[in-house]
Amino acid sequence: MPVPAHPHYLQLTLANGLRVSLRHAPRLKRCAAALRVAAGSHDAPLAWPGLAHFLEHLLFLGTEAFPAPNGLMAYVQRHGGQVNASTRERTTDFFFEVPTPVFGDALQRLGDMLAHPRLAMDEQLREREVLQAEFVAWSQDAEAQLQVAILEGLATGHPLRGFHAGNRDSLPVPQEDFQQGLRGFYQDFYQAGQMTLSLAGPQSLEELQALAQCFADSLPSGHLRPQQAPPALMDGDQHRYQHLDKQHLHHLIACNAPREALEFLCTWLNAEAAGGLLAELKSREWASALHAKVLYQFAGQALLDIEFNLGPKGSQQAPAIGALLNDWLGFFAHSDWTALREEYALLVDRQRQVRGALALARQDSEHLEAQLSEPHCQALKAMLNTLQPTPAQQTWQLPPSNPFLQRPPQEQRPGLIRGQTSAHRGLRTFAQDRSRGRRELPGLSFSQALPADSDEGALYLRWQLDSPAQGLGNSLQTLRTNARQAGVELSFEAVGNDWLLKMSGLHEPMPAIVEQLARDLTRPAANLWHNALVSPAPQMAIRELLKVLPTCFADTANGNALPDRWATARWQGLGIGLPAACEMAIKNAAARLPGHCTDSEHKALSINGQHRWQTVTTDGDEAALLLFCPAPSQSLADEADWRLLAHLAQVPFYQRLRVELQVGYAVFSGIRQVNGQTGLLFGVQSPDVALAGLLEHIQAFLTQLPALIKGNDDLGNTTLAQQFSPQTLPNAQAAELLWQAHLAGHGADYLEQLQQLIQARNRQNLVDAAQQLKQAAGGWQCLANGAAVGDYWQQ
Predict the structure, then answer these.
(1) Fewer CB atoms < 10 Å away: N or C end of the chain?
(2) CATH number of 240-356+364-399
(3) Which residues are catalytic?
(4) Per residue in 518-563, pLDDT tens?
(5) Of 384, 387, 638, 404, which Cα lies nearest the Cα of 513?
């Protein structure tokens, strides 16, 4: 029976046992599904670690009805969506997001792959090699090994201490008992009673329910099986310990508070405001950052991880840092949370207003309560009192209210200032005197390409400096946190001498955020440029290459490190999807930004005809390579050709290198826009094949592209063109496209023109484009973790 809920939200259990969550959100432009199976790595037979993860992989290899080239992953990617899966300790999740018209077809493919997997022996043997490659990468990854080390303080018998990823040794595929275990696990857990389906989209609840019922009809009926409760997280009466690793200190706490209560605690523990724990640690130079999160939760057990990035004097202060943490927890436990609970409710509501379809569906699959209830608070108080029952000795303060969560004051009528009436309208006001001296902002423009009829918008601000911009955003972390809580995602990107700031989300708080940004950026230079953050831990090789890619097309000329770098800085900005009142407020706030607002034309770096190679140092022994191929020109016709090539190549490239040749486990291709330049990007990381082999496989694929185009009945013009409609593009994606178009010199009708050109391209256009691609007409930029292969590359 349906469970009473919000008018736009419904929970029910269908006849075959499938639990369903439905969310109708009219503002959404796409639909999403999240399917959660109540079984994960810790539920697999002990004899075969990694079996649950292995099964998740096998389910994506296609069925009789939908072979892999037409299965869920390929179908979603072909329609410009996103798809993935995740095997956790006690759950396995499958999720995707697609345009509304194809949602039903994608759901059908998800249901079919869950209900009718082939589990063929040859496919199992091939996929096991993929897990083996992932295992090798995992064993070399510093972050992954740190995670293993952090958990060594847990009870020996707890499954969190075990290995569950799977590899060649733990998955004896040919053995009959393994096959029985695999099929037994599948039959026990991959049935409707063990699953929860969450759908989110602009459709009505009735339409979503009909889609859920169709999905349920493909699954076998069943009942929810109880999952075995794990042993205690820690031995005896122990409930906490510390782990020190170089510049990181982790404080682990075992507790039994509800997830909602722990998220509330983490929000305020992570606060950077004066009077808080992090501010005190910074003042003593013991820590530069703090991040508290729930690492694990199941069956009344929870593990809280409080991570400190240690400062210059922190490595010898682990006990003292633990004592300060205890003292703050005591302060928090004895504080009045009334104001914090009100602020937290505003925060949660703002987050729900800006979440996309996929984020909403995944959140609903967690089945967490939207508000922090009184029982949650009591449970958190009880937990904190067991950790630190006495009041604090240090003088602490609760964080102040987030200024961006409050609605701005109502604007005065034009021409009047506070205290004036209409009788004074003929007199010049102080406000008008100030405005006469306000500088013009020729470099700040506002695009009309998106309708300003929603609550969301975007703003891009780009500074050009005379010296490297690295570290400029280090002093803006508090601003970033407050903006995110208010529904605005704020990000910074330093590439060479350029510094780009993006904000997207609810437009209401944006003017106030720009005002605060202006204040923060004009602080003394020491706070801005020398407050360096701890370097992030190295990532897997292919991700390190992706981080470096933008610098290949950036201005990196080294100027003098001036005491005031803003003196010669130039900046430009673009607002997208903002109503007129918001535009005016942003203009007023932006007038205070440092630097000179100039309307200078952006010139993209051209590498036409060149073969450029850049070697990047990465951790580990695996070969990793990116090949970025810019379009021959900035014309929209070339961009349309390149996007269609990417559309046609994405699935065959993955199928050829990842599935058929087993070259590597990190294999991808697609369009990437870098600093206004559109290009095709190919990426591979392999534990077995050297760089020369990886490049050879990519070049062989490019050689086969013309034949692939000629043999394809449907070039995908209509499918791809529809993905660039403002009516179906999520706001953040549309804004990014329009910003890149702005850098490339295209007008406000960019999306419309691009759609028309994609629709009009023919087979010969694409064959010619494929030849240009192979001949490096627009150039080839290769990034790899080794020396150049061949003598035709420029270093």
Answers:
(1) N
(2) 3.30.830.10
(3) 56
(4) 999 887 544 443 344 445 666 789 999 999 999 888 766 655 555 5
(5) 404
